[in-house]
Each structure stands twice: as C-alpha cells, then as structure tokens.
Design brief:
74% helix, 85 residues, 3 helices, mainly alpha
C-alpha cells in the first residue's frame, strides 16, 4: 500500500482547516468550490470516501511520521536539536 507524503498531507490539512474557518466567517462561491476541491483531494490522498475519515487517517499518519522521525534521531544518537556552529 502506498503511504502519502506527510508534507503533502500536512499541507492539505492546513488548507482544509483554513478554508473551513474562512467559510464560517464569510462564505463565497469561489471559497466553497476551493473547499470542495481540497476536501476531494484529501479524501483521495487518504483513500477514504468521507472527510471525517480522511482527517482521522491524516492525523494518524502525521503522528506516526513524528514518532518515526524521533526514533531515527535517537538511533543515530542525535537529540534532534540543531548544532551551533
């Protein structure tokens, strides 16, 4: 099974949330169309039929990506903090 790129998923989630907030403040036809497109893309990317499942899967994917990144840094003996040069 293909796993979506966490960076792409994060961007889609951010755009989805931003559009939902903007729509709640003031809805326009253009914004509604863009929200529909981002919703569709997020569902396709996460392999779901509904936005609630897509958001849940995206959250899980991003949490796993953070955990995996933390493990690889620990395995390399790195703290994950940048070095001062």
């Amino acid at each position: 099974m293909l796993v979506p790129d966490p960076k792409t998923v994060r961007q889609l989630l951010t755009r989805y949330a931003t559009l939902r907030i903007a729509q709640a403040e003031r809805q326009t036809p253009a914004m509604a169309g863009e929200l529909e497109e981002v919703t569709r893309r997020l569902c396709v990317t996460m392999g779901t039929a509904g936005i609630h499942d897509a958001v849940a899967r995206a959250d899980d994917l991003l949490a796993r990506a953070r955990t995996d990144r933390g493990r690889s840094s620990e395995a390399d003996g790195e703290s994950g903090l940048p070095l001062a040069v």
